[in-house]
Each structure stands twice: as C-alpha cells, then as structure tokens.
Specification:
With 272 residues, the chain is α+β, with helices and mostly antiparallel strands. The protein folds into 3 domains: 8-124, no CATH class; 134-224, no CATH class; 228-265, no CATH class. It is built from 2 helices and 17 strands. The strands form 4 sheets. Strands 1, 2, 4, 5, 6 and 8 form a 6-stranded mixed β-sheet that branches. Strands 9, 10, 12, 14 and 17 form a 5-stranded mixed β-sheet that branches. β4 (76-79) and β5 form a beta hairpin. The longest helix has 27 residues, at 2-28.
Amino acid sequence: MMRSIAKASFLHLLVAIAFVATLFAIAAAPAAASCPPGTLLTEIHRNIDTGKLAPGSGSTLCLQAGKTAHLVADTSLTAPKGTFAFLFWDVQGRLHTTPGVTIKTYKGEPAFNATAWYLFQPACHTPPCGGGEPNVRTLGFQVDKNEKLPGTPIASVSPSTNAWKTPQTVVYTNASAVTITATNPVDFIYWKIFPPNPAVTVKSTVLSAPQNAEVLLAIAFYGPNPCHQISPPAPGELGPGASAAAYQAAAKYDIEMYNECIARHGGTPPSP
C-alpha cells in the first residue's frame, strides 16, 4: 500500500514538473509564435544620444498580411529627470519624420521592429537653463542600419575664423553666421533641424545658420550609396573565353557609369 502511494506521488510529481516545464516553454517561445499567421511588430523607443531604451518601449502589434497599420508616436515622453521629444521613425530602414507612420506587410514577412527615436531634454527647475554660447549641435544617423553614426557628420565650417575643429560636433554661432557642410555627400540624404527654426536653412549638404542661432539638434541622415552597386566585372563574370580586352572595355564602361552616378549624387570620391 505504501509503495502504491509512493508511486502515485512520484507520478504526480512528474506531471507537475512537466506542467511547469510547459509553462516555461510557452513563456520562452518567440513572440512571433503568438501572431500566426500575421507578422509581429514591436515598437521600440530609443534615446538618440545613447541608443538606450526610452519609456514606453516594447509594445507589440500583430499585423495581418496585405493590410495596413497606422502607428502614432507620442510627441513627448515623461521621464524622472526630464522629457523625451520625438524626432523620427526608422522602420525597416525607411525614414519617417512625422509621428504618424503607415505600415503594410506581406505574407510570410518575419517579425520586425519599428523604432521611434527621441531626444532627451533635462528638466529645467531654475531658468535660464542650458547656458553657454549659442550653437548648432549635430550628429549623423545611418537610416538603413537604424543607428547613430560615430564621430562628426561635419566636413567643414565657414567662415574659417570659426572655432570649430574636426571631430567636434558643435558649431558656435555667437561670433557670426555659419555654414556647415556635411561629410560623405554621396550617402547623404538631408539635414533635419530640431526644433524647426525658420532662420536656419538647408540646401543639399549645406546647413546655414545666422549669428546667435540656437539649434538643439541638427541630424545629418545617411542612406545606402546607390553608386556602390557599380563596379568593374570580377574575374570570370563575363563568362568563359572572355578576352582581357573585353574586361578592360567593361571596366571602362562601369567606371564611366560610376562617375556619372557620383556626379548626380554629389561628391568626387575615387573611381572603383
């Protein structure tokens, strides 16, 4: 009798262990498994300066194939020591500079993130806040990689008497108006000024700010270089029996196409 009770207790223990293991397996399963047959979208909020998560990050949405969803980011997020101000969305390598973004998925699309990037602004308890000389603060952002770029996005600043030196990211405007030219013109998309300032203008890679202008953040956006896809043929690419002259002719043609692409997009980097 005692043996039967012990055996039953052991079986009950095994069942309990199996049940708990199942619960853990369910909890540990990929979130995408909870969204069949659609695509799971996770909304991420990040601090543009640090890359760390901002408040409200992590909500999910199950998108049905072929249908559209509309996301609207909070223009401001409250934090213990200040607020986060909305800057832009980066969704699957595409830039959206308004709080509202429309997303459409296709059948079988894997789970993905929609990232809303924010600028943290410390709370001001004793005005005036900020202090220091008026300036334009800059950073570079790679849209197709959804990440802030290291270093400075500035290639040059005029007038030459300005105190800016590479690799600084801040240009002071207290002494005169300034003209800031972005680096890497081929990959450059455009400047975004935050908050908008009618006195600060942009044309292609050039940002112009009047004397004493204050820009909390000027973002130089970059994307994939369309000219990088043009390159001379690799060995064997022209097929068996192709002569050296054929390769030279193809390389000459590709270099011409590459230089034309560069001319359309700006800049004069070396030919491939």
